[in-house]
Amino acid sequence: EVQLVESGGGLVQPGGSVRVSCVDSGFTFSNNYMSWVRQAPGKGLEWLSLIYTGGTTYYADSVKGRFTISRDNSKNTVYLEMNSVRAEDTAVYYCAGGVSRHYFDYWGQGTLVTVSS
Amino acid sequence: EIVLTQSPGTLSLSPGERATLSCRASQSVSSSYLAWYQQKPGQVPRLLIYAASSRATGIPDRFSGSGSGTDFTLTISRLEPEDFAVYYCQQYSSSPRVLTFGGGTKVEIK
To answer: What integer best gives the mean pLDDT of chain A?
Structure first.
């Protein structure tokens, strides 16, 4: 069974950088499409980025040029590098994925990133 | 970019009643690319429906999805106490290749 566990969140200063990670303890990570989705406090869900099994990447306009998604299939891990962060990037960051690029079968428990001075 | 508008924002119903949630897209969405999720307070979203009408593994048959083009519906035939939550629709588009969520509908106990 797939189990996604995020880490790397915390307090970050405006303009700073942070990398969040997500480890998949399942056995089929290399076959799964993976995304990052965030949820600001009290708000809805916002898709940020998608990475294909082979490494092709896509981004929402709101984070294009600032955030970078990557994956290491040998470590069953997907990453989100966040640069030039702003207060409005404060949110719980979920990794999500599955066998389809069209929707999300599996979700991690989320990691909170707070952007504040 | 396709915008998904969910209505109503809040639905107040009693257990045992039928819930009908709407998701309207600003442009036509392939039925294969429309999904619904449930999120309870303090919990992670859970996939309910994919490809507009296919139930995800373990989802009770009181949940059903329908629709095509720009209008999609999630129906909960008889609300159970555990169904009171926020529901999101989500679409995938191939050009540009992005995914978007609707703003959510909260189903609350009346």
So the answer is: 94
Beta pairing partners, A36: A49, A95
Question: Would you give the distance in Å from CA A30 to the centre of its chain?
Answer: 16
Number of residues that this document lists for chain A: 117
Hey, are the CB atoms on A60 and B98 less than 8 Å from each other?
yes
CB contact under 8 A, B90 and A46: no
Summarised one tens digit per residue, pLDDT across range B10-44 is 999 999 999 999 999 999 999 899 999 999 999 99
Question: Residues, chain B, total?
Answer: 110
* pLDDT tens readout for residues A49-102: 999 988 999 999 999 999 999 999 999 999 999 999 999 999 999 999 998 999
Give the closest of B47, B96, B102 to A104, CB-based. Answer: B47
**Beta carbons of A34 and A26 less than 8 angstroms apart:** no
Q: Are strands A111-115 and A91-98 parallel, antiparallel or unpaired?
A: antiparallel
The radius of gyration of chain A from alpha carbons, rounded to an integer in Å, stands at 13
Report the alpha-carbon distance of residue B99 to residue A4 in Å, rounded. 20
